Amino acid sequence: MSTTIDSIKRTNGVAGQFSYTATGTMYEEPYTLTFTSSSYGGPIVMITQSGTQTFVSQPERFGPALTEDWVRAFITNE
Predict the structure, then answer these.
(1) How many CA atoms within 13 Å lie on the side-chain side of 44?
(2) Contact in structure between 8 and 18 (CB atoms under 8 Å)
C-alpha cells in the first residue's frame, strides 16, 4: 500500500493567508488534503475532504515552513 501524490496546488488568500491542496491516493482510496497557514507565521491547519480541521503538531518535523516540499514530506511521512 503506497501513497501517491497526483498534484499539489498553492492558493493565496487574504492578509498573508495561503494554502496548499494535495490530491492523490492513500490506502487505495482517493484523498484531498488542504494545508493552510500564514506568511506571517502561526499554526498549520490540515483540512480533510469532509471539512475536518486539525492543527498539525510539531510541523517543523516536515520543514521550517509550509511549502510544496513540506506537504510532500507530511503526506509521505519522510
Answers:
(1) 22
(2) no
Residue type, 69: D
Q: Is 70 within the bounds of a domain?
A: no
The pLDDT score that the predictor gives to residue 77 is 86
Domain holding 40, by residue range, is 4-64
The yes-or-no verdict on residue 78 having pLDDT over 80 is: no
Q: Are 13 and 40 in contact (CB under 8 A)?
A: no
Number of domains in the chain: 1
User: Is there a domain that residue 77 lies in?
Assistant: no
pLDDT tens for 44-71 read 999 999 999 999 999 999 999 999 999 9
